[in-house]
Design brief:
- By secondary structure, this protein is α/β, with parallel strands linked by helices.
- It contains 13 helices and 13 strands.
- It folds into 2 domains: 192 residues, 3-Layer(aba) Sandwich (Rossmann fold), CATH 3.40.50; 169 residues, 3-Layer(aba) Sandwich (Rossmann fold).
- A 7-stranded parallel sheet has the order 3-2-1-4-5-6-7, with helices on both faces. It has a 6-stranded parallel sheet with strand order 10-9-8-11-12-13, with helices on both faces.
- The radius of gyration is 21 Å and the shape is globular.
- The termini are close together.
Length: 381
């Protein structure tokens, strides 16, 4: 029996094209390739223009709906999403992140015209009471009202509020990346290329400049190496609230002239070939797409033992692993990779094979499609 295509609305409030956004783009591209009808619903406040995710999605030929609403949770915004789902004849509403989870999940189920699937891409567990902690609590409540909840790696099942192993509505689908036919719509920045050319060592990283990404630890970890080799350089692609603090730290460490913070680049994966070593110094993570992209590119990796990272790196067989928040351990792991290039290349080859075997967007999309079929089956599809 031939099953008809499903129309899936992917709802997200995005600030750039980072890990979760790349997952959404790759998932929707693959779903479209296999005959489904994904639509990216990009939520933003009333003051914002076209978002980077919207532009990236249109570049890939994906359907996009831009929805603007006042900031914060609001009934009008929630109802507008449900009206859109009805008008689009959506078979599934797929939320990605706090905004969509809360706006859709807190409304009565009877108001939804389609089942809700929610993907938890990562969780910042905080011990102090602040806005993030409040969002966590509300989001966890909203997730319990979803028809299915997807975690992006098994380790997330140990996180408070996500540890529901006996709930059949909760499942794990690992992130995957597009490993073929990757579109290139932006040329490399010549300033970054020149900065990396003819260097003895380029240590690279990609991510939002925020506390949980641990770039302060990275700078402390590489400072000694940079001072020893005046031809070594660091490049961190990304933007965020920690930029001033990172710039001050680089200055205080005496390495500001060796560290480049060129800002956000929508196709950061294309810069990976400029790096001799990729560092992921995060304090918390889900299953980071930037790590998968570096592995696929064959770049040696040093990363922290957080979230799904040890699993992805095959417990150290695919790259160096260190404890988070430990600059000395990071320095030692980087030194080993730099001083023993043959060792680092062996790990990188294993990592690249792991991605091709286990973490492709094709495998991810097939698993999501099976899940979508499962949740719409009661509706007679």
């Amino acid at each position: 029996m031939t099953l008809r295509p499903l129309r899936i609305l992917h709802i997200t409030d995005s600030g750039g094209v980072y890990g979760a956004e790349v997952v959404i783009l790759d998932l929707c591209s693959e779903l479209s390739r296999i005959g489904q009808q994904p639509v990216i619903v990009s939520v933003g406040d009333t003051r914002c223009d076209e978002k980077p995710l919207e532009r990236a999605a249109r570049d890939r030929g994906l359907e996009v709906r831009a929805i603007r609403m006042v900031p914060g949770p609001n009934l009008g915004g929630a109802l507008s999403l449900l009206r859109l789902a009805k008008d689009e004849h959506a078979d599934v509403i797929h939320t990605h992140g706090y905004k969509g989870d809360i706006l859709v999940g807190l409304l009565p189920k009877r108001l939804r015209s389609a089942p809700m699937v929610a993907t938890v891409h990562g969780y910042t567990d905080v011990s102090v009471w602040n806005r993030v902690a409040l969002y966590n609590r509300v989001d966890r409540f909203a997730l319990r009202r979803a028809d299915r909840v997807v975690l992006v790696h098994k380790g997330m099942t140990a996180t408070a509020g996500l540890n529901r192993p006996h709930d059949p509505r909760w499942t794990v689908i690992e992130n995957g990346i597009k490993t073929r036919d990757m579109p290139v719509t932006e040329p490399l920045d010549p300033n970054i290329v020149r900065y990396c050319e003819n260097r003895s060592l380029v240590i690279g990283a990609v991510g939002r400049l925020s506390h949980e990404k641990g770039f302060d630890v990275m700078l402390q970890g590489v400072a000694e190496i940079l001072r020893e080799d005046d031809r070594a350089r660091v490049v961190i692609l990304g933007e965020g609230p920690e930029r001033p603090a990172l710039e001050r730290l680089a200055e205080n460490l005496g390495v500001a002239d060796r560290v480049l913070l060129p800002g956000y680049r929508p196709q950061a994966r294309n810069y990976l070939r400029l790096f001799d070593l990729f560092v992921l110094p995060s304090r918390t993570e889900g299953l980071p797409i930037t790590l998968l992209e570096a592995m696929h590119a064959g770049v040696p990796v040093v990363a922290t033992k957080v979230g799904g990272v040890p699993y992805v790196l095959d417990e150290g067989l695919g790259g160096g692993l260190v404890e988070p928040g430990d600059p000395r351990a990071l320095t030692a792991a980087i030194r080993r990779s730099v001083e023993d290039r043959a060792f680092a290349s062996t790990l990188a080859a294993h990592a690249a094979a792991q991605v091709q075997a286990r973490f492709t967007s094709e495998a991810m999309a097939r698993k999501y499609l099976d899940l979508y079929r499962e949740v719409v089956t009661p509706a007679g599809l």
